[in-house]
Design a protein that fits this description.
heterodimer; A: 189 residues; mainly alpha; B: 390 residues; alpha/beta; Quinone Oxidoreductase, Chain A, domain 1; Rossmann fold; 2 domains; 7-stranded mixed sheet; 13 helices; Glutathione-dependent formaldehyde dehydrogenase (chain B)
């Protein structure tokens, strides 16, 4: 079981990165061509849009899907892909300066992601170090379970809560059901 | 007085608010001695239930001492009497109440027109649970106004602690009704999804009602340990396949009775369908995560029964209804008709057949309630059931 605390420092940072992911993803998706031109990498427009979809997915995961650690790791992997793309795109690029600025921004985001995931793993380690409470003696019954099974089988339960007898699985009821079916068949023939 | 007040998503605070007053001759004012955080309160905390407004007092599992009684409730209640208050407010006079269907009382929802529009027809008024069900102030407070108090109460005799009887107001009869409406037979296997407080009560109820085999499904080790203590065979869905294990335990036939004690917030990352549900929830394309319902439909023995005490709020997606139809499953669901069961259950507590206080893991003052909501939600510190002392 993954442990996380949705109010912790690590989780708050993860949520912040989640919103950042959604914002960046929408920008990449909607303004992919403009961003690509600015970086001198117009041939990568569709790739940048695809990265936008990836960012939105990570953002939704961080904001909505409980344990943020897998999503932060996915962001770190995404950062590596972004940096590889930008590094490759800087060769013979008249706007290499802009691509370099983007590279620096991705590095900064990566640093934040790493800080965040480290914090989250530290928090998980702390929760795992806490003793697990032992509830194995909390039956709620005064006697062993075997002695309590069926102790309330005489409970007053209204007919509206009952299953029609023909749908019961008890062997005895099945016999009743068979008798009923036989009677019906006799009546129709 | 102090009360836990809803301010928005993940924002419940302990505020000072005006004391409640008698507003109708059938009202009573109860001084709350003990209250609890219910799993369904988390749906409000997490803002998955529509119809909350800033300033609403939350809480629907509470008990206390009668402080004031309106003129028309005096024949039924006396000042100083000790009562548990059921979470469903009921009039006792409408057609549904006369049938014992208290959770669909036709008169207790003061926002009936709104409920009629949203649900088609109104259901009962509930304490501290959205304006769709009346917008009544809840019981996580020092005092609470109880409407239709001449009916809406369970008198508690001396000799029983608050902790023993508090859960008569909700989770005990809810677990009991979930099991009762399965019409458990001595040959039945009952599978229960969720080992939270309602799941724990359902397990004990199924045992008391005589199920041959009770199987509990969850992923939290301490909750599974408590389920096992209550007589269940446990399945940790993070460690083994629920479908394979259920088939193994039922000779390949599937459980005859399946109970969903999870509801709309099924664990979001365990399965692909849950992740899709969560993403859709975030994008407001769906309101409930229905993984448990889908799994129950799949594993249940044909002609079996699905019982749903877990709370659902609105719309669910990708429901394999063809599977349910072809298997001829019976569906039983609804909010609990609390007072239908409480005389019998109170007797069982008095006789010592069961002590529902086994489920309490945390007891704190009311002002620590907001923090405990988070602890309960995140299942930290072995938290299963939180009791608050105003």
């Amino acid at each position: 079981m993954a442990y996380y605390n949705r109010s912790s420092t690590g989780d708050n940072l993860a949520r912040g990165l989640g919103w950042f992911s959604v914002g960046l993803g929408v920008a990449e998706l909607m303004a992919g061509r403009t961003i690509a031109r600015w970086m001198g990498m117009e041939d990568k427009t569709n790739l940048i849009r695809a990265y936008g979809v990836r960012e939105i997915t990570a953002g939704v995961g961080l904001l909505a899907l409980g344990d943020p650690k897998p999503w932060i790791w996915s962001r770190i992997a995404g950062d590596a892909v972004d940096m590889a793309t930008l590094a490759a795109g800087m060769e013979n690029n008249p706007r290499a300066g802009n691509a370099g600025i983007a590279f620096g921004a991705v590095m900064a985001a990566t640093a934040l992601d790493i800080v965040c995931v480290q914090k989250l793993h530290q928090e998980e380690a702390y929760y795992r170090s806490l003793p697990v409470p032992d509830y194995s003696d909390r039956s709620g019954f005064p006697r062993p379970v075997s002695a309590m099974r069926g102790a309330a089988s005489d409970a007053p339960i209204g007919e509206d809560m009952r299953t029609p007898k023909i749908l019961r699985f008890q062997p005895a009821q099945s016999q009743t059901a068979q008798n009923q079916i036989a009677q019906n068949q006799t009546a129709t023939s | 007085m102090r009360a836990l007040v809803w301010h928005g998503a993940n924002d419940i605070r302990c505020d000072t608010v005006p004391d409640p007053k008698i507003e109708h001759p059938r009202d009573a004012i109860v001084k709350v001695t003990t209250c609890a955080i219910c799993g369904s309160d988390l749906h409000l905390h997490d803002n998955f239930m529509p119809g909350m407004e800033k300033g609403d007092i939350v809480g629907h599992e509470f008990m206390g001492e009668v402080m004031e009684v309106g003129a028309e409730a005096k024949s039924a209640l006396k000042i100083g009497e000790r009562v548990v208050v059921p979470f469903t407010i009921w009039c006792g006079d409408c057609d549904q109440c006369k049938r014992g269907n208290y959770s669909v009382c036709e008169r207790s929802n003061r926002n009936k027109a709104l409920a009629d529009k949203v649900f088609g027809h109104t259901t009962a008024g509930l304490f501290g649970y959205t304006h769709l069900t009346g917008g009544y102030a809840g019981g996580q407070a020092e005092y609470v106004r109880v409407p239709m108090a001449d009916r809406t109460h369970i008198k508690i005799p001396g000799g029983l602690t608050d902790e023993q009887v508090l859960f008569l107001g909700d989770i005990f009869p809810t677990g009991w009704q979930a099991a009762a409406q399965c019409d458990i037979q001595p040959t039945d296997t009952v599978a229960i999804w969720g080992c939270g407080p309602v799941g724990q009560m359902t397990i004990r109820s199924a045992i008391l009602l005589g199920a041959k085999q009770v199987i509990a499904i969850d992923r939290v080790p301490e909750r599974l340990a408590m389920a096992k203590a209550g007589g269940a065979i446990t399945i940790n869905f993070e460690e083994e396949s629920v479908v394979e294990r259920l088939n193994e335990l039922t000779g390949g036939k599937g459980p005859e009775k399946c109970i969903d004690a999870v509801g709309m917030e099924a664990h979001a990352t365990a399965t692909i369908d849950s992740m899709m549900d969560r993403a859709k929830q975030a994008l407001m394309l769906e309101s409930d995560r229905a993984h448990v319902l889908r799994e129950m439909i799949y594993v249940c023995r044909p002609a079996g029964t699905l019982s749903i005490p877990g709370v659902y709020g609105g719309l669910i997606d990708k429901m394999p209804f063809g599977m349910a139809m072809n298997k001829g499953l019976t569906w039983r669901m609804g909010q609990t008709h609390v007072n239908r069961w409480t005389d019998d259950l109170l007797n069982r507590i008095q006789e010592g057949q069961i002590d529902p206080s086994f489920v309490i893991t945390h007891t704190v003052p009311l002002d620590q309630g907001p923090e405990m909501y988070k602890t309960f939600r995140d299942k930290r510190d072995g938290c299963i059931k939180v009791v608050l002392k105003p």
